[in-house]
UniProtKB/TrEMBL annotation:
It comes from Selaginella moellendorffii (Spikemoss). One of its GO terms (biological process) is negative regulation of gene expression. Pfam families: RRM_1. Keywords: Repeat, RNA-binding. SUPFAM superfamilies: RNA-binding domain, RBD (SSF54928). This is RRM domain-containing protein. Residues 1-77 form the RRM domain. GO terms for cellular component: cytoplasm; nucleus. GO terms for molecular function: mRNA binding.
Length: 77
């Protein structure tokens, strides 16, 4: 199950996003979306869980979670 994660802090990369969501279960893939020209984070990414139940738990716990000065928006992609 693939999750959309919005409003990421600008300094977040794939590894920091993975570490934020790994407590919820096995992750298949993580991708922070970056600007083609500058390489800067666009402020959102995707987390793909191996198990749908883990993804549902992650949405339940992480949607609205505060990270630095941002409030995450997490939903099924």
């Amino acid at each position: 199950t693939n999750l959309y994660v919005g409003y990421l802090p600008p300094n977040y990369d794939d590894e920091s996003l993975r570490s934020l969501f790994c407590p919820f279960g096995q992750i298949e893939e993580v991708k922070v979306i970056r600007d083609r020209n500058t390489g800067a984070s666009k402020g959102y990414g995707f987390v793909k869980f191996c198990d749908a139940a883990c993804a549902v738990q992650a949405v339940h716990h992480m949607n609205g979670w505060k990270v630095e000065d941002k409030t995450l928006a997490v939903r099924v992609a």
